[in-house]
C-alpha cells in the first residue's frame, strides 16, 4: 500500500518539531500511532502494520528501500538506475528487485544523505562521487547531467567478516596446493600483483593474501575508498585518497599517499587498486627495498597486466619503455590473474612468475593454470594444472622455506 505509507509519512512529518533534535524513539512512537489509526481504517493485518512501520521509519531516518536490501546478506551488489529501476546481484546473478523509491526526489535525498556522511559533495557541478557506507560498502554516484536517465547509485557490498584463503579454497576459487604456494610466497616477501576484470574478486583475494603476512610486520594500505580489512595485522596504517574540493584544491591522490608511505617505515605497502600514474610509485617502492608489497589492477591476463603497467607508468612520467620493463622485471615477482567464468563463479585462472627480460620483453612462466574441461549441470568444470616450478627461490631460502616444493 504505497499510498498509505506516504500518507503516514506525511502525517508524521507534520507532527515533528524540526526546531530541535528528534530521537529515533520519538519518531517510532509517532509512526506507531499513525499506523494504528490508519491501520484500523484499512483493516490491516499485524504483519502489514509491522512492514509499514518499518518502511516509514527507514524512509525518515535511514536509507529508505535500500535498508531491506542492505540487510540481506545474499545481496552483493545494488544497482539503482533511477527511482523505479533497482537491480541486485545474488550468487553472481543479477535480478530486478521489486523495491522502488517513491520519487526521484526521494532517491536524490538518500544519495545526499550517503554522500554527506562521507563529507563529500555531489551536485550538477560535481555529478560524480565515490564514497562508502558505514559498513564499508563501496558507493558510486552519478547525477544528471552526466547520467541521462536520472540519478544512478551503485553499491558494492563486502562480507561482514573478510574471506580467508581457506574460504576461497572451499568455494572452488583455487586449489589447496595453490593456496599453500601463495602462503609461502607472501610470507617469503615476494611482490605480487593481482589482476582481473570488474567483479572478478580482486579486492577479496588481495585481502585474503594479507592473512599470510608475518604478524610482526608494519603494513600500510592505500586505497581510493578504504575497503581492505587486513587479517591478523597488528601494526596497520590505513590511508585513503581524497578528491579535490569545489575549488579544485586539497586533492590527495594515491600517488601522494604511496610517496608519503615510504617515510612511515613500512615493511609492506598494499595498494588496493592501481589505475594510473601511481603505478610508477608502486614500482619504485618495490625496487627500493619494499619487497613483499601487494597490489591489484584491471587486466585481461597476466601478460596484459604488463602492458597495463607500462601504460599507467607513462601517465606519470615519460620514460623509455625499456626502462619501465626493467623496473617491472626487477620489482614484481608474480602475477595472479582472476576471472569470472560463464557460470558466474570466480577463479584463479593463472599464477605466473616474472623470470626476467629477453629481447626487450618481460618474460613470464606459468606456475599454475586453470584448464576448463566442459560443463556439468550448468557449472564450469575444470582443474588447475601445475606447469612449472618456481625459478627465483632466493627470497624463499632467506625466509627459511628453501625446501618448499613450489
Order of helices and strands: HHHHEEEHEEEHHEHEEHEHEHHEEEEH
Helix content: 25-40%
Could you say which structural class the secondary elements and strand pairing correspond to? alpha/beta
Poorly predicted parts: none
User: For the terminal residues, how far apart are their CA atoms?
Assistant: 62 Å
In angstroms, what is the radius of gyration? 25 Å
Portion in beta strands: 15-25%
The name of the CATH superfamily of the largest domain reads P-loop containing nucleotide triphosphate hydrolases
* Largest beta-sheet details: 9 strands, mixed
Number of domains: 3
Describe the structure.
The protein is α/β, with parallel strands linked by helices. Helix content is 35%, strand content 24%. β12 and β13 form a beta hairpin. α1 crosses α2 (24-42) and α11 (302-316) packs across α12. The longest helix has 19 residues, at 24-42.
Write the layout of secondary structure elements.
Layout (H helix, E strand, L loop, with lengths): L1 H14 L8 H19 L3 H16 L4 H5 L4 E7 L4 E5 L2 E4 L7 H14 L10 E5 L5 E5 L9 E5 L8 H6 L5 H12 L4 E5 L5 H8 L9 E5 L12 E5 L13 H8 L6 E4 L6 H9 L7 E5 L3 H15 L4 H11 L2 E7 L5 E13 L2 E16 L2 E8 L7 H5 L8
Parallel strand pairs: 7-11, 7-12, 8-9, 8-10, 10-11
Antiparallel strand pairs: 1-2, 1-6, 2-3, 4-5, 5-6, 12-13, 13-14, 14-15
Short structural summary:
This protein is of the alpha/beta class and 406 residues long. Helices cover 35% and strands 24% of the residues. The protein has 3 domains: 1-60, no CATH class; 62-157, Beta-Lactamase; 165-398, P-loop containing nucleotide triphosphate hydrolases (Rossmann fold).
